[in-house]
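Quick one: co-fold with zinc ion.
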Amino acid sequence: MTRTATTLLNNVFGYDTFRGHQQEIIDHLIAGGHSLVLMPTGGGKSLCFQIPAMIRQGTGLVVSPLIALMQDQVSALRQVGVRAACLNSSLPIEEIREVESQLVRGELDLVYLAPERLLQPTTLDLLDRCELSLVAIDEAHCISRWGHDFRPEYLQLDTLRDRWPELPMLACTATADQRTRKEIVEKLRLGDGCTFISGFDRPNIRYRVTGKVNERQQILDFIRNEHSGDAGIIYCLSRKRTEKFAEYLSENGIPALPYHAGLPAWVRKKNQERFLIEDGLIMVATIAFGMGIDKPDVRFVAHLDLPKSIEAYYQETGRAGRDGLPANAWMAYGMQDVILQARLAESSDADEQFKRSERQKLDTMLGYCETVSCRRQLLLEYFGEILEKPCGNCDTCLEPVDTFDGTEAAQKLLSCIVRTGQRFGALYIIDVLRGSESERIFRFGHDRLSTYGIGTEFDAWQWRSVIRQLVTRGLLAVDLEGYGGLRLTPAARLVLKGETELHLRKETAVKARAAKPKKKKATAAALLETGTEEESTANQELFENLRELRRTIAAEQEVPPYVIFHDKTLVAMALYRPVDDAGFLTISGVGQTKLERYGDRFLAAIRENS
Ligand code: ADP
Ligand code: ZN
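Sure, here it is.
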């Protein structure tokens, strides 16, 4: 059979059709053209250079910033029978020699290298003696000085263009604004008219934001109700909090590990490896965790602290659902978060201009949290993309929030703050409004104020939301030096005097919320629901058995389970239940090599359960 791009896609990778721009990019590269490829995480960038490397004469060079990342890709390629290898410092010397001689003999379709290794004179000399087919630069945004992942070695990659002028070069990334894009094209001298941009939307991710009341209970409920047995990442701001929550979840029977820059390198490495290899482990991490985490079956990303910007939030949540199956981006946030982030923005040593830009980013983030319209529309708009209709897969779309004329509520709140001396935090103010009989209130004599007990129409949860919204809109300022005392800004005077109207997001009272029927969950397990309840249960059982078999095989080979098959492929097996080789081959994600290697064992497991 001739090696066309489509036959390789079908027979080797086991997929039916190309996605988005894949075909165009592949044709362009096979024909010898340079390109810059922008695709969201999980969009399928790798195939864009893997397939041309298999078709063009010679070996394709892939530059990748992280060793863990390249090892995963190489394992996955070998699983489907592609001749791939990597060269890096973690390999024993004999293995390096072996890969080098395979290279010289022209026995490899792809070789993965870190930039510093590639640019060593000995490596370059070696490569001069080999036949090369193309150069692919993964995570190309690392070339940008402005980006968050700048790597100085990436800057020197342009020397490759002089060294091998005839080789086509493909640079790819998932994060690139206009400026970064321009930088990549200029520095690598890719020329005009070669940029392929796919939309940034991640339709399978469901975005949700909720107020924080009892964060421990909230995260526990979220995981137990929607993600039992799933892998996920929980982001916290501080090292201490990651440890606290990892411990708390473990105590409650949910396997979780901490990850932050303060842990010894070997612990970080071990925890990361366990996260990749084991099914259903939760990583409770600071933002130190994530770059290069290619795990496709992360089913949720939860934020227990407010991210400092939309960029950070989108990148972090983007680590969920790379395999395209339903996933959740869930966040709980409260006043304390706002105070903390505002403090961080103020306290840095940076100049005033930088601080102002940090404050602006935080304000945009808060605006996102408190929005009453579609969250996805807002996110995409931030990245310069227009989504015509509300998405139908975020909390505000699924459970539209009401707005209400909040002028009176705001007036009650503001005057209560004035009367108590503009020095108390949110919790105390709410207590006064709701007429709490706390000892503190009596001690200060605040039970005698005219605002005492005038706010019983809302519960504490709803009042918190009103306060957050007034802070977000710049009507209330938070004392960042002390204990988060609230005070009025000049703009608040207008509201107090009744000169402006205020429309606010209306939170449903806690009691009413508990009574509401639950929405269909965004979980992979939901895909196994078909026909009757019995059938669905049977599908679920088979899926679990297939997972178990996958775990066994992965352990035999010491690779992560998703390198054997993705969840998506197992779901398809459980639903379609193929009975023979031909049927097994029709499953998306099963190609010739995987059929030969695993067909018998998986078919047997399916037979046993049918
Ligand atoms: P990223 O763009 O994040 O590098 P990957 O290249 O890792 O994404 O691809 C994400 C997943 O999608 C991989 O498991 C890959 O095998 C799968 N994939 C890529 N292209 C296709 C396709 N045309 N059809 C089905 N699955 C695909
Ligand atoms: Zn929406």
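If it helps, The first strand starts at residue 35 and ends at 38.
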